[in-house]
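Recall the central idea of this unit: under ordinary conditions, the amino acid sequence of a chain determines the structure it adopts. In this exercise we apply that idea directly, starting from the sequence alone.
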Amino acid sequence: MDSRTFLGLTQSHNPYRWSMEVTSRLITMGNFLWGGAGLGAAISALEGTTGRNVVWATSQYLSYARCGEVLDIDVTVAVQGHHMSQARAVCHVGNREILTVNAALGDRPFDRSGQWERMPTVPSPDECGDREYRHDSENTIGDHMDQRIIKGRNPSELPGAEGDGQTLMWARIPKVIDGVDATTLAVLGDFVPFGVGQALGVRGGGNSLDNTLRVVNLVPTEWVLLDIRAHAVNRGFGHGLVHMFAEDGTLMATASQSCIVRYWKDDTSPADAEKGS
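Accordingly, the structure predicted from this sequence is:
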């Protein structure tokens, strides 16, 4: 299946209105929509409406869509140029806004290209162990991703000393076999909160405030290397970046995020852990 089918995203008779049901395969362990799935759905809707490929898309997360709710996505094309469109998508459940996405889409003729960010030297996915979860990931998005840890700690190894800010992991969505696109990368790129917990050495993570996907070069690949860099944590917020590489070393995209840093719900007081991650 392709990424749109995986998300369950459909277009109405109105080409500017899309919708999807928030099913168990799109939710976190907190029973709400995985932020990357929301951004991915908005990107798919924006690309479907404009007929152009996303260059960058930035999302602001405002509320939570729960399992069983229907997310409607309304697309507005603000500017339609010769090579590029500027557009936005408002994602809502009824009159409750969940996230807003602004994006630029298009392709331009230009005679030069280059890549200066290099993929770290890492073992292959077959040489790496599966990521361990603190709870059973059944009926969540984690059950529909393969994740192989290269550099990182399992829940049983936390809390521990602060890390160096880098976490490395191979990831894929096995059911999406029709090629890695921007939507798939949006889903896979939502791991800065995970990297923040790893960097702090705590049993925790966070909830995304935003996510900006910048698409560079989409190439065929089965696995995507996530080079997660936690930059800093202060005032209860964490900030970081994910470089996403194909198996051949091509930098396909970057995803930058800020998040609300939280301890896991079962590891701290209820007042301090309204939402787990």
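Residues 35-50 form the longest helix (16 residues).
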